[in-house]
Amino acid sequence: MLYREAGDFKTTYGEDSQTFPIRFDRMGYYVTLLVAFGVVPLVINDYWASAVFLPFLIYAIAAIGLNILVGYAGQVSLGTGGFMAVGAYAVYKLMTSFPDVPILIHVLLAGFVTAAVGVLFGLPSLRIKGFYLAVATLAAQFFLVWLFNKAPWFYNYSASGQITVPQSKMLGFYITGPQTSATAKYLFCLIILVGVAVVARNLTRGTVGRKWMAIRDMDIAAEIIGVNPLNAKLTAFAVSSFFIGIAGALFFAVYLGAAEVTEAFNIQKSFLILFMVIIGGLGSIFGSFAGAAFLVLLPVFLKNVLVGQLGWPTDLAAHLELMIVGALIVAFLIAEPHGIAQLWRLAKEKLRLWPFPH
Amino acid sequence: MELRNITLRFGGVVAIKDISFDIRDGEIRAIIGPNGAGKSSMLNVISGFYIPTEGEVYFKKIKRGPMKPYEVARLGIARTFQNIALFDGMSVLDNIMTGRLTMMKSGLLSQAFWYGAAAREEFAHREKVERIIDFLEIQNIRKTPVGRLPYGLKKRVELARALAAEPKLLLLDEPMAGMNVEEKEDMSRFILDLNDEFSTTICLIEHDMGVVMDLSDRVVVMDYGRKIGDGTPDEVRNNQDVIDAYLGVAHD
User: Fold this and answer.
1) Does residue A191 sit within a domain?
2) Beta carbons of A208 and B99 less than 8 Å apart
3) How confident is the model at residue A88 (pLDDT cuts 50, 70, 90)?
4) A200 against B198, higher pLDDT
5) Does the CB of A199 have a partner CB in chain B at under 8 Å?
6) Mind listing the domains of chain B with CATH numbers?
7) Chain A contacts in chain B segment 141-200 (CB below 8 A)
8) In a domain, A275, yes or no
9) Which of A59, A93, A171, A242 has the fewest CB atoms within 10 Å of its CB?
10) A2 pLDDT band (50/70/90 cuts)?
């Protein structure tokens, strides 16, 4: 009975187009924010941060970025890993060149660098679509990884070819480096994620978002009503790469601390994030969160249950995880191509009428 | 709007052969003809989707060079399609809002924060769109995804999207195809109303002769890419070429 829109009158267009039009949802959103900012930082420890929270927050940023490109603008991309690597190497070069600038600014700048690279690799999308575009972005993936591996300038001529994050502080707290507390890492990523999600939501509900979706649903009609396809596709590549670059920068600087490009940003990363977007729901910001949470939690869950509780060998559990993810992707593509977000949407529609559906 | 000696070829196929006609401000102009006569190609030439092989297109007395479709949209020409071209993944409201894209100017950054100019612009346009929603009587499906709507309503939403652009010239490609009598009556009423109220110039293709003859001020008849008749409905109805090619005679 709580889940109703009746009696909650909207008197302005602003109220009518808000993100959570139903009061119950709005409360849920505030409670989630309160828990995320007020409760989790107090109880978080290193294991939870590195196993669950940090990967979830960072992958959610990347998934939102990819969802803008694939889910909203309809341009398939397999270059996510490569673009994350651009973000990571950009933040590394910036941090080592200008150690006094706060890391938040470096992370945002890394996003802009990645956006520029994304636009460059997005240029072929003006001519090619679908599978062929996927192959073109696959080329971006391999080219970028090769570049960061071969050109020593990018890893500051270090002997191992690795990049290692220097220590940095913001507001008196360590954000990167070995002395950083789990709480600081968590809060830093959380603040950026909330910012990214709000911006992504605002863009997708406004004019730009409509242009992207118009191009996705029917590009010829979009052109006839006045959408410039060059402009729409390239802004989608830019915004998407901006977020993915931020995710790459955080993944390297805050989460890993040290990275080797062929290990951390290979093609598997591209697929992992694409799977998050597909399972979570194409064209939905909530779906990006759901997909990231699902694919981060699943291995942790399986490991704890199968290895921890049942005492199975670790490699068996790891193989089982691959099979489950594979089966789920096939199942989702057949049964619910719009992912967890669509299931959630349907549940909400039913709940609105419950318990008298007729 | 004036078209002079338009010829359109696709390789060896001549779709339109040396056709000239004009569309006056504020009139309803119909293009009729048997299947494959080149009517839709003609509409595509007007809307800038095809560039004519020969001939000149004048819009508001100014010659129009080769243009991209989205540039034509900015001139104030909007259209609907024979087989509906809506954006299925978006709600009715969002679909109609896309009609106003050419008028929305706020930058990426101000949209990103949904603050100030971007939000104000959005709501100003929303108000205009709501007026069109009222006009076409589709208030109750505002937030429904277009993919779920029945055919007749989709046609109406597509008209709404074209209207949202406040076009100077509205091109309708078979607005009544596949509709039942009642839906046709509604659609005819909307077309007449918007011609009256907003004095929109309309150019339409239609096969229902009753509707065409009642609605339009002047009619162009095409057959095999050539123009075989042009004039008021009465003139066209009594033109022997048109009767032979298209209208036919009643069986006794």
Assistant:
1) yes
2) no
3) very high
4) A200
5) yes
6) 1-76+168-252 (3.40.50.300), 86-166 (no CATH)
7) 161-162, 165
8) no
9) A171
10) low
Tens digit of pLDDT for each residue in B58-83? 888 888 888 888 888 888 888 888 88
d(CA B166, CA B150): 25
Domains in chain A, number: 1
Any residues with CB less than 8 A from the CB of A168 and at least 6 apart, and which? A95, A99, A102, A103, A174, A175, A176, A177
Q: What residue in A sits closest to B46 (Cα-Cα)?
A: A224
Give residue-wise pLDDT tens across range A44-66: 888 888 888 999 999 999 999 99
**What distance lies between CA A163 and its chain's CA centroid?**
23
pLDDT digits (tens, 9 = 90+) for A204-231: 888 899 999 999 988 888 888 888 888 8
Q: CB B101 to CB A226 under 8 A?
A: yes
Chain B partners of A226 at a C-beta cutoff of 8 Å? 70, 73-74, 101-102, 165
Q: Where are the alpha helices (DSSP H) in B62-180?
A: 69-75, 92-98, 108-113, 117-135, 151-164
Distance (Å, whole) CA A53 – CA A44: 9
- Determine the distance in angstroms separating the CA of B208 from the nearest CA of chain A, rounded to an integer: 25
Contacts of A105 (CB under 8 A, 6+ apart): none
Of A136-140, A187-191, A328-332, where does mean pLDDT reach its minimum? A328-332
For A104, the domain range is 28-266
In a domain? residue A282:
no
Q: How far is A342 from chain B (nearest CA, A)?
A: 12
Q: Is A224 on the interface with B (CB under 8 A)?
A: yes
Distance to chain A for B78, nearest Cα, Å: 7
Does residue A272 belong to any structural domain of this protein? no
Across chain A, mean pLDDT equals 87
From the list A244, A350, A327, A242, the residue with the least C-alpha distance to A292 is A244
Which of A11, A208, A219, A225 should we substitute to test contact with B (largest number of B Cβ atoms within 10 Å)?
Answer: A225
B152-188 per-position pLDDT tens digit: 888 889 999 988 888 889 999 888 888 888 888 988 9
Nearest Cα residue to A237 out of A74, A60, A87: A74
ipTM: 0.84
Query: How many residue pairs bridge chain A and chain B with CB atoms within 8 Å of each other?
Result: 101
Residues of B in contact with A13 (CB under 8 A): 122-123, 126-127
SS3 content of chain B, % helix, strand, coil (to 5): 40, 25, 35
User: In 3D, which of A219, A127, A233, A224 has the Cα closest to residue B69?
Assistant: A224
